[in-house]
User: What shape does this take?
Amino acid sequence: MIALITGGTAGIGRHIAEKLAEAGASVLVTGRDPERGLSAARELGGEFVAVDHSTGAGNLAFAEALAERGVKLDILVNNVGAIAQPTQSFTSEGYDLLLAVNYLAPVTLTNALLPLLAPDVRIVNVVSSAFTMHTGDPFTEPATYTAIGAYARAKQLTLLATMSLARRLQQTPARVNAVNPGMAWTPSVQALTPAAVPAWRFIWPIVRLVQRSSSAEKAARLPASLALEPPGSGEYYESKGKPTELPSRLQDPGLQDRAWREGVIASREAGNDA
Ligand SMILES: NC(=O)c1ccc[n+]([C@@H]2O[C@H](COP(=O)([O-])OP(=O)(O)OC[C@H]3O[C@@H](n4cnc5c(N)ncnc54)[C@H](OP(=O)(O)O)[C@@H]3O)[C@@H](O)[C@H]2O)c1
Assistant: This one.
């Protein structure tokens, strides 16, 4: 059983990787920092590959390298995410960084890996309950930039794309789900400032207290169990562990397919430019 966990060298992803390794999987973890990655791989008894998931070119080159090695994946956990951006920044390909890491990365990578996935692959896309904070058109940036706003929209697009992919694969034994792991005190949360989430600035000390006491190991339990034994497919799981119905406007198959399609198109454009 081979499991790929993106951003699996620290935070929640590191604990997901540990749980999958304990269940007998050969784990492959990605991240940018080779020192941290190699140390995690050693502890996990797995493999580390340095990848910057913020670019389409990085995701496509990684998928190509796996294809050349003939890797077949039984589990794909698209865990990598980002939020700690006080001001807007852009990737070398011109995308908003938070959109790129939280939305374009999982869609680009999953699409590029489709030929490498076992027929009964379990795909888990790690999203966030923050997706509910974006109430407008998911394809339109909010007028005023905040990191939490960009993050919420990107996670919403990933959630939509997850449902589209699950439908595309519904005649196969593949299982595709999205999960909110819940709060955890991880490197990206530690790096948060009130500038990223302006609404929290007046209650910042309380927010930090709650965040500090939230365990990444606990947050990893549900994503890991969905990777090992998903009860179904095409579901969104909240951290309490129960499938949760999406707001009705997000149940539109046309909207879901557009989220998948636009992510794939962006990845093709990045590939052509690379
Ligand atoms: N923590 C929470 O409270 C919380 C709540 C809800 C949802 N989530 C979601 O859960 C997932 C994991 O969150 P987390 O808090 O554990 O994240 P995190 O602290 O940022 O995770 C760190 C991991 O991601 C890697 N990483 C970050 N940016 C990367 C990039 N551009 N390319 C490759 N690897 C990258 C890091 O390695 P390098 O730094 O070496 O690249 C490391 O392995 C995310 O999708 C997040 O949105 C988290």
In short: The longest strand covers residues 117-126. The CA atoms of residues 17 and 257 lie 30 Å apart. The pocket of NAP is lined by residues 7-13, 30-33, 36, 51-54, 79-82, 101, 126, 128, 180-181, 183-184, 186-189 (CB under 6 Å). The chain has a mean pLDDT of 95.
